[in-house]
Amino acid sequence: MNMARPDPQQPLAGEPVLRLRGLSKHFTLHLRGGVALPVLSDFSLDVHAGECVALVGPSGRGKSTLMKCLYGNYALDAGEAWFASSAGAIDLAQATPQQLLALRRSEIAYVSQFLRAVPRVPALDVVAERALAARATTPALNDLDQPDPGEAAARERAAALLARLNLPRSLWQLPPATFSGGEQQRVNIARGFITPARLLLLDEPTASLDAANRRVVVQLIQEAKAAGSAIVGIFHDEEVRDAVADRKIEMEPLKEPA
Ligand SMILES: Nc1ncnc2c1ncn2[C@@H]1O[C@H](COP(=O)(O)OP(=O)(O)OP(=O)(O)O)[C@@H](O)[C@H]1O
Hints:
Belongs to the ABC transporter superfamily. The longest helix is centred in the C-terminal third of the chain and has 16 residues, at about 210-225. Helix 3 packs across helix 5 and helix 3 (about 125-135) packs parallel to helix 6. The N and C termini lie far apart (about 60 Å). The strands form two sheets. The protein has a five-stranded parallel β-sheet, sandwiched between helices. Strands 2-1-4-5 form a four-stranded antiparallel β-sheet, covered by helices on one side. The protein contains eight helices and nine strands. It is globular and about 50 Å long. The chain has a domain at about 50-70 and about 100-250: 3-Layer(aba) Sandwich (Rossmann fold). It is α/β, with parallel strands linked by helices. The chain binds adenosine-5'-triphosphate. Adenosine-5'-triphosphate (ATP) binds near residues 59 and 63. The site of adenosine-5'-triphosphate has 10 residues, from strand 2 and helix 1.
């Protein structure tokens, strides 16, 4: 066994990629006199490599909030969120902003309905950039028996994904700021899937897509699972959910604030 070459897709046998224990989160509603709105309370979950867990429950149960806490957009109040990174286990609830940014570049991908991209960067580069950033920041990826894609190869992969997602070629060199919702979402999806993320967070990845593109996304998710990604997703489209989810986790209602 070569200890210097950890496979980022293979955590220790039997160990989950994501181990959540006792997560709690509230929002303080300043416009309502500072009242506390509890959103997550004592939430626990394990997600293994190659597994897709769908968060289900009515609107407002905290599904998106949980995803944003795992991606580091929101701080948690309590609990542990252990992530088996290629460099070892890290508690996402305690991770520093620098650690979170490094994980975002290569190991944790988040695909939401909305694209946040640097202005004036063409769609193709928005997608390719993630592949280049991952290679630059994750020594483990460089150690794998894979050729360094370099910039041209990263663009080639980006182009292949955009073509697969039926984004018109005429848009590839344009910045996505003016794209339609569905076009932006496909750029977002291509960016999320261009490198094999160890943890994929999918918040309504097919919300603005037509049936043909939904099928492409289902295939991409199935391929990511086969490659060993652990996936947490919110899929309001039941057909998509049934096609990709191994388990459903019902988000329980919490008490209303007094
Ligand atoms: N930044 C925020 N500030 C204050 N309250 C928030 C914030 N984000 C979410 N909430 C509240 O937290 C609760 C959970 O919201 P969240 O978006 O996580 O629900 P959800 O289950 O994903 O809903 P949906 O299915 O409609 O997307 C809601 O009551 C929402 O109003």
